[in-house]
Design brief:
The protein is α+β, with helices and mostly antiparallel strands. The protein folds into 3 domains: 105 residues, Acyl-CoA dehydrogenase/oxidase, N-terminal domain (Butyryl-Coa Dehydrogenase, subunit A, domain 1); 111 residues, Butyryl-CoA Dehydrogenase, subunit A, domain 2 (Beta Barrel), CATH 2.40.110.10; 153 residues, Butyryl-CoA Dehydrogenase, subunit A, domain 3, CATH 1.20.140.10. 49% of the residues lie in helices and 15% in strands. It contains 11 helices and 10 strands.
Length: 386
């Protein structure tokens, strides 16, 4: 199916019409979520045999670009559910059925969210300040503070991890599991009052002894970089779908810029539109070429994940590269759109003004600038000598 078939124009325009209000009121995208659920959007990765769309990563990235052009914060919030279902799909393709239940539960209407990020933890998936305390029945209780939990008002399944410092002869191990919403021991801190991406409501989550039973524990890994398929699947889906959201923002900003340049007139050019101004034309052309590059890179990486292409030790470099390229390109394109569209775009309530704030969130998602460059340098030059 095409992105236009999954997100018809009428649905997309309803979602677009609500974005400014959510942003103004700092409110969650409840209506968008209901519309998307009704459209089968939350089941994009779910197999057709289970009532889903059965799409691959490249197709989902394309439709997320379309959604992000209408409502960036809605797309970013939904991304977290799509990442977990995408991870399950990638693992299934690799012959690992450990998260097949995620697809089954998504088919039944469950909504998945991420509780991975922690303030000050720049090791991300390779260490955790959250305590995962083992229980006698094989389950774990989780205690810690997780930041940037998108979908916080609505999730029904929360994927998280913590460290059991007693495991592996004291070296510790990272324990991954899913918390059900009705399980006690977790709470949401209403601290999401941000510059942009406001409707995502990515509030802080407090875990205070939240118990995950043994059947919901799906991975135990060492506290160090490793080649487990789960790590690859999370990186592949998280980085690619983030890149898709920010590419969608850039595409919408570019569209608005072209419209503005054709509409605005210049006294200098005898009342003709700014489309006749050589300097403006150069800026628009530069933004178009930047978009061409990131669209091609994003599409290629997503197709390679779907095809199971073997990039060896360059895979993580490619994944962090596409995320960084997409977010930085998006910032540059939105900035250009503001410059060529004139002072009206600076006013509160203008769509470009909101996109300008939303696009800045891209610098905070992992992998950030420093981490991405470190990953790429290690892939090509080897690790730093100690």
């Amino acid at each position: 199916m095409t992105p236009e078939e999954i997100l018809p124009d009428a649905l997309l325009e309803r979602i677009r019409a609500r974005a400014a209000g959510y942003d103004r009121d700092n409110s969650f995208f409840d209506e968008d979520l209901r519309d998307l659920e009704d459209a089968g959007y939350l089941k994009l990765f779910v197999p057709e045999s289970d009532g889903g769309r059965g799409l691959g990563l490249a197709e989902v990235a394309a439709v997320q670009r379309r959604l992000a052009g209408a409502a960036p914060a809605t797309a970013l919030g939904v991304n977290m559910h799509l990442v977990w279902t995408g991870v399950a799909r990638v693992l299934d393709n690799l012959g690992d059925g450990s998260l097949s239940f995620v697809l089954e539960e998504a088919a039944a209407g469950e909504l998945f969210a991420f509780a991975i990020s922690e303030a000050g933890n720049d090791s991300m998936l390779f260490d955790s300040g959250t305590v995962a305390a083992p229980l006698q029945d094989g389950g774990y209780s989780f205690t810690g503070r997780k930041i940037f939990t998108s979908l916080s008002p609505a999730w029904t399944r929360l994927g998280t991890f913590g460290k059991d410092s007693t495991a592996r002869d004291g070296d510790g191990e990272l324990v991954y599991g899913f918390i059900n919403r009705e399980t006690p021991g977790h709470s949401t801190v209403g601290d999401w009052d941000t510059l942009g991406m406001r409707a995502s409501q990515s509030n802080t989550t407090l875990l205070e002894g939240a118990v995950v039973p043994p059947e919901r524990i799906f991975r135990k890994l060492p506290t160090a970089p490793n080649q487990d398929p789960l790590i690859f699947a999370i990186f592949a889906c998280f980085e690619t779908l983030l890149a898709a959201v920010y590419t969608g923002i850039a595409e919408r900003a570019f569209e608005l810029a072209v419209e503005a340049v054709k509409r605005r007139t210049s006294a200098k050019y005898g009342g003709r539109s700014f489309a006749q101004d050589p300097d403006i034309r150069w800026k628009v052309a530069d933004a178009a070429m930047a978009l061409d590059a990131v669209q091609a890179q994003l599409g290629g990486i997503a197709r390679d994940v779907d095809a199971g292409t073997d990039h060896g030790n360059l895979w993580f470099a490619k994944l962090v590269g596409v995320k960084l390229r997409a977010t930085e390109t998006a910032r540059a394109v939105v900035d250009t759109a503001i410059r060529v569209s004139g002072g009206a775009s600076y006013f509160r309530g203008a769509e470009l003004e909101r996109l300008y704030r939303d696009v800045l969130a891209g610098i905070f998602h992992p992998s950030n600038d420093e981490s991405a460059h470190n990953t790429v340098a290690n892939a090509w030059l080897g690790p730093l000598e100690r």
